[in-house]
Amino acid sequence: MTVEFELNGVARVFAGDPTMPVLWYLRDYAHLTGTKFGCGIGVCGACTIHVNGAARRACITPMSVVAGLKLTTIEGIGSPAQLHPVQEAWIAEDVPQCGYCQAGQIMATIDLLQRNSDPSDAEIAALSNLCRCGTYPRIRRAVRRAAVALRGGKG
Amino acid sequence: MSAMAMPSRRAFLQMSLTAAGGLLVARYFPLSAAVEDTDGGVALGVFIRIDPDGTVAIGARNPDMGQGVKTSLPMLIAEELDVAWSSVRVEQLPLGLVARTDAPGVTWKYGDQGAGGSTSIPDSWDDLRQAGAEARSLLVRAAADWWSADEAILSTRDGFVRHPDGRALAYPMLTRRAAALAPAARPAPLKNAREYRIIGTPTRVVDAAEIVTGRAQYGIDVYRNDSLVAVIARCPYFDGGIATFDGSAARLVPGVRQVIVLPGPKPGEPITLNLATGVAVLADDTWAALKGRDALRVQWTRGPHAAESSQTLARQIEMLLRHGKGKRIRDDGDFDAALKRSATVVSAEYYTPFVAHAPLEPQNAFAHVESDWVTVIAPMQQPGGGARAASEITGIDRLKMDVRMTRVGGGFGRRLTNDYVAEAVLLSKASGKPVKVQWTREDDMHHDFYRPLVQHALRAAADRDGQLVAWEHRFVSAAKYYRRSDVKPDDLWRGDVYPDDFPAALVPNLRLEWFGLESGMIRGSWRAPAHTSNAFAVQSFVDELAQALKRDPLEFRLALLGAPRELKYSSHGGPIFDTGRMAGVLKLAGEKIGWGRTVEKGRGLGIAGHFTFGGYTAHAFEVEVDPGGKLQIHRCVCAVDVGRPINPLGIEAQMMGGTIDGLSTALNLEITVKEGRVEQNNFNDYPLLHNADAPDVEVHVVASEKRPSGAGEMGIPTTAPALCNAIRAASGVRVRRLPVRDQLAKARG
Fold this sequence. Notes:
The complex is a heterodimer.
Chain A: E1 3-7, E2 10-14, H1 22-29, E3 48-51, E4 54-57, E5 70-72, H2 85-92, H3 102-115, H4 121-125, H5 136-150
Parallel strand pairs in A: 1-5
Antiparallel strand pairs in A: 1-2, 3-4, 3-5
Helix pairs in contact in A: 2-5
Chain B: H1 5-9, E1 13-17, E2 23-28, E3 42-43, E4 48-50, E5 56-60, H2 69-81, E6 88-92, E7 97-99, E8 106-108, H3 120-124, H4 127-147, E9 155-157, E10 160-162, E11 168-170, H5 171-180, H6 208-212, E12 228-234, E13 241-246, H7 248-252, E14 256-262, E15 278-283, H8 286-295, E16 297-301, H9 310-323, E17 327-332, H10 335-341, E18 344-352, E19 364-370, E20 373-378, H11 383-394, E21 401-405, H12 419-431, E22 435-438, H13 441-446, E23 454-462, E24 468-477, E25 509-516, H14 529-548, H15 553-561, E26 566-568, E27 576-578, H16 579-593, E28 603-612, E29 615-625, E30 631-641, H17 648-668, E31 673-674, E32 677-678, E33 698-701, H18 719-731, H19 743-748
Helix pairs in contact in B: 2-4, 4-5, 11-12, 14-18, 15-16
């Protein structure tokens, strides 16, 4: 059995174990290591990616279900030379401490802002990705800053 | 991984530490002719390389686990080098060990490269500034030669040497001349603090662009050709072993290459390498290794602690406090006599549970053992310990190793030990292959060096005037220094009791006693170690005393501290405890929260202050407890004095993060024991605080000019007691046992 899908805009074929979580495919085979392993049970969100544009936890998503779908990882969002507005906001608010969860936080935030361009404080705080360093207050500031930027700078 | 290879080959200024820890600018020797890198960069000492385009590469010697030293330590060098921060590129240095010239053995090439105890800033304050100043001094001398001018009339700024007549030379034009100069006779002068342009300036994390784009390299991101991924089934019972095991089904899993038994330490013996017996499955990829581990059939022996549970530990605590004989740690005056004479006696007990570090990046390590060379790449807090473990296992000299620390996905003290590094080295040696060991979250939850469980029994007495005259604190703890090869049995208490902590020397009759709790749980240092538990007990009890004596909690604390003065402090963070600085942060936190004002019904204010590893912190909370016992944090203020702030933005981050770590732990986290093993498994039953429950933290950093302390751990200890003091003020419920969890609802129910 092979699985055909799109990864960061490039067509891919996977012929390995279809039960392999997308997380380990991304890391071990696609060498896209920005998607992190934190819990393996879909609780912490460090492995958040987009599947057809919606946030999904790669550690509990087997390769078999992504056939025909479009996957986007943090590497497909922006690069240091060409940052996404959410990434810019993260730098401006100096969010990262250890930084390990932040790619997942950013993927979850982009998903939120795609669904809701002007989220309330409660909607922002409902982001369920865990941060062990406790960067939550700066994450909230960065989400607000990014929302403003994505709306064209209008508060 | 980008490593700063260049300067490491060409030492100019070698520094080493004296036995007392003081800096010795030991040796100067001129650079050889080969100072130039292939791209034209020139090294000035072991930390600095200046490229032709003016980019200044600065080596970061300590691992960054989120405490920000990859930013703040290079700031010290850049300040004295006098370059624009925007021209600086920071590169992580590998472990630098060199042969000693004065005796057998090895010494640090770059200085101590560990990260723990909030020591990076205070330990680097002198030598890294000096390293920058030495390089700057060479550049000035080179310019003086060029212009035939007296160096005393020259100045520097933003990467240029300036002549008073208006001429200027950019550093890259001077580097080759500078590198060829003979060493100066005296250490280069340091800047006056009034001239600082980088130190004290809010500075963002240097790696931020790499982190937010997923490019930053953590240990888990290390991939090497031909390497195998190892996942280990470890015995879940403390000191248990293997009864029977069958690896045949595991070997049949596609991708699985080897199954290797990994013996652990013998029961009770010091833990210097891996921490548990296990069976490792080595495979082509992580998923195959995980499936292979699932296919193992292992029967464990339950070991000597199979009867241990949280309940048996509680009974043991009771027995020790009632019938045990404690070790007298401190005994000022005559506590018993003072108690008899006193007018008011208050006593209370407090409890803090075992907790896990749970860094978000699960443990992992890459190792490749070759015939006469070892490579280790891992997220480590003590890379020097990693090298020692690798040498102990392989017999290969530490100078024949390439040991690199990646960015670290959270440390909190967990990665001070190198058990996971030892596993990778053991497995690479046994398999003959490069091996990356990968832990799962469950592995991490089951096999930690847990923060010790502690029961505190406190008793204090006041005279008729309400003056505190006697204080007794009995600690029952599962010693942090459990199974440490470098700690004598008589010194086991030293990890759990800091004898000069408040209110020592402030109460005339004061007695501290320690009782060791027997447990098979492996213990270790957890961010701000014993301070987290001890400050909770002491700062909660101080509030209970104030209440009993009808004193305002803040005023009572300030009265206890008395006039500003320096007291002796013998534990880590000393040698001085300054009562004035302690009072200063308490007053600041009180002022910012609006201490003394009337709050709405159902709300309360709470405050606590503590001295941690050289830094002074106070927290103040305004909380609300509704009739159903639901807690809401309305405001959270943190005031901190860490001496001269190096990077205010980083200090704010550490206080904010430490506060939220403290809240997360105080509200919800506990590791429990049943049948000699840990009960929790993952973040579903060890629930870290979510964004929605984390308050904004109003951080106020004291603008001090004192010698700087670190900032990584000061944010935690006062969080729990200030919170619980506020809960008491809001609801009347005194929380004496952490975590808080549903205690408020139960008290109200």
